[in-house]
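S.,

Sequence below, as promised.
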Amino acid sequence: MAYRPTEHTQSKKAGTRQRILKEARSLVAQGGFAAAAVAQVARRSDIATGTIYRHFPSKAELVAEVFCHASQFELEAVTQATLQQGSCKARLLQAVETFADRALRAPRLAYALIAEPVDPLVEKERLTYRFAYAEAFEDLINEAIEAGEFVPQDASVSAAALVGMLSESLVGPLAPQIESYDEQITQREALTEKEKRALIDSLKALALRSVAGIV
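The prediction came back faster than expected:
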């Protein structure tokens, strides 16, 4: 008779997998994807290193799933902002604020999701989520054009440009360190709350100028 996992066994396996993902995400939030070494994840999960590979064939697949879980959470927050009540202009501003504010509150994780050099498998997922962000903005822009709030434009191009602008504008402020010309590593000073507010306001103003056609 073929072996059939019991409900208890399946539940235990699922629990172990979730614990692995939780600890891996915690490490990424502290030090980026480079910090999520398999041995370190196993130690924090209180399991043997080999157990990791029973759930994830490689570190790349583990990191890719961590990336997807974290990115989905952020995407849902921004998408929800675009679907709130109110004018399209107000929802655009709220979505931009949500994107930037959440990134600045968890800078190391945000940098990992947006810009950290990663395995091709993770880079593929990153591209997928950039398309998903653009789709959410595209829907809002099309709605705004139909309502006469935004100037006529190619919504797909504008949405893609908006996502690119937000991501690239945040790379510098989120970067955990700077490598100077003489290869010395220096820590980047964290932004003050006043500087964060100024940055978010600048991004919102830029979004209105570039996408809505409003100054």
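The chain has one domain: 7-212.

Coffee later?
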